[in-house]
Specification:
- By secondary structure, the chain is of the alpha/beta class.
- The protein has three domains: about 5-95, SH3 type barrels (Roll); about 105-290, 2-Layer Sandwich (Nucleotidyltransferase, domain 5); about 290-340, no CATH class.
- The protein is built from twelve helices and twelve strands.
- The protein has helices at about 95-105, 115-125, 175-180, 190-200, 210-225, 235-240, 250-255, 265-280, 280-290, 295-305, 310-320, 325-335; strands spanning about 15-20, 25-30, 35-45, 55-60, 60-70, 90-95, 110, 130-135, 150-155, 160, 185-190, 210.
- A six-stranded mixed β-sheet has the order 4-3-2-1-5-6. A six-stranded mixed β-sheet has the order 7-10-9-8-11-12, sandwiched between helices.
- Strand 11 (about 185-190), helix 4 and strand 12 (about 210) form a beta-alpha-beta unit.
- This is PiRNA biogenesis protein EXD1-like.
- One of its GO terms (molecular function) is 3'-5' exonuclease activity.
- One of its GO terms (cellular component) is PET complex.
- InterPro entries: 3'-5'_exonuclease_dom, piRNA_biogenesis_EXD1, RNaseH-like_sf, RNaseH_sf.
Length: about 350
């Protein structure tokens, strides 16, 4: 029996609707019933124009409904049982970060030459701890492939660097230095292509790589006991781990490779290129927490233990090197003791 939307959502809740047509809409819940849902301040994905004060969607056109996660406000608050799990999926990015990512997508900086904007971009990227990296327009073979369009991003800014007019086996020295840095983490989905081409054609040995596709394979192997026969693309990883709509970057992934080599590049393609990079860092952060899940859980338990300690226990804990018995028991009972 179909649930009624007004029994699940409260007025003012920000919702993300993925339609069966793969279109994505965002809006604030106003009203709903058995077969319709009404949103206010509706914005279409890839389009920043509001569609009207009130916009109706019908059950037969909706594929998925998602809510944004709110920031944590309480210490050691136990997770609530999600009774509406089958009715609405919770995106594992807080509302503030979700809209920041969308704004970052749209505010990309397109760079065609090694001008003032290029050097400003290199300074920002070299000051970053982690950057996302996407190469577009490369051929699917080893010896005829060169980097034509490079998308680099930090947590707050996307840079699209056009390299089509650079000599085939040349790369700006600042980019070479960036890629070879041991201290800046490069987040890439399926890095094998760009890493090999950089090494063979540009004499660049990329270091400190976090490959989200390889990490996904490793997590699946750990969970199931065997390596999956088919790898997930970036869109599938974003859906599986962060509960983002699968179609959120699907149009970008479906762009034919030759399109990235056509000039001039239109604004829609620039936006698509930006989308392929902007979610990499947030995905890396989530995957990293999964890899260190036992450590994070132990840290939370110990911190909760400190929160709940009395003044005398707290004073002893922060002033002495001895590990309190309560914390010893937490460490000994944790999964971290068996993970090395």
């Amino acid at each position: 029996m179909a649930f009624e939307y007004n029994t699940v959502f409260k007025r003012g809740t920000r919702l993300i609707l993925e339609l069966k047509s793969q279109e994505i809409y965002e809006g604030t819940y106003v009203d709903g019933g058995k077969n319709r849902i009404v949103l206010n301040d509706v914005i279409q994905h890839n389009n920043n124009n509001k569609l009207g004060d009130l916009y109706e969607f019908y059950r037969n056109e909706i594929a998925e409904i998602r809510m944004l996660k709110l920031p944590a406000t309480k210490i050691a608050e136990p997770p609530k049982k999600n009774d509406n799990k089958e009715k609405c999926k919770l995106i594992k990015i807080c509302e503030e970060d979700y809209f920041r990512l969308k704004e970052t997508c749209r505010s990309y900086i397109f760079i065609e030459n090694a001008d003032k904007r290029y050097f400003e971009a290199m300074k920002v990227l070299n000051d970053a701890e982690t950057i996302g990296v996407v190469s577009l327009g490369m051929e699917k073979n080893r010896y005829g492939s060169f980097i034509r369009l490079l998308v680099l991003c930090t947590w707050k800014q996307v840079y699209i660097i056009d390299l089509i007019n650079v000599e085939k086996r040349e790369l700006y020295p600042e980019i070479k230095q960036l890629f070879e840095s041991e201290y800046i983490c490069k987040v890439i989905h399926k890095s094998s292509g760009i890493v090999d081409i950089l090494y063979r054609h540009y004499n660049v040995y990329m270091q400190n790589i976090f490959d989200t596709q390889i990490v996904d394979l490793s997590i699946q192997k750990k969970q199931s006991g065997s390596c999956p026969p088919v790898e997930r693309n970036l869109s599938e990883c974003l859906m599986h781990y962060l509960n983002l709509p699968q179609s959120i970057i699907q149009h970008a992934l479906e762009v034919p490779n030759k399109k990235w080599n056509e000039r001039p590049i239109n604004d829609k393609l620039k936006l698509y290129g930006s989308q392929l990079a902007v979610y990499l860092i947030v995905l890396k952060d989530y995957l990293q927490k999964l890899l260190l899940k036992d450590v994070f859980e132990l840290t939370t338990k110990i911190q909760d233990c400190v929160y709940n300690s009395d003044d005398f226990e707290f004073s002893n804990y922060v002033s002495k090197n001895e590990v309190p018995k309560k914390i010893q028991k937490l460490v000994e009972s944790s999964n971290t003791s068996n993970s090395t």
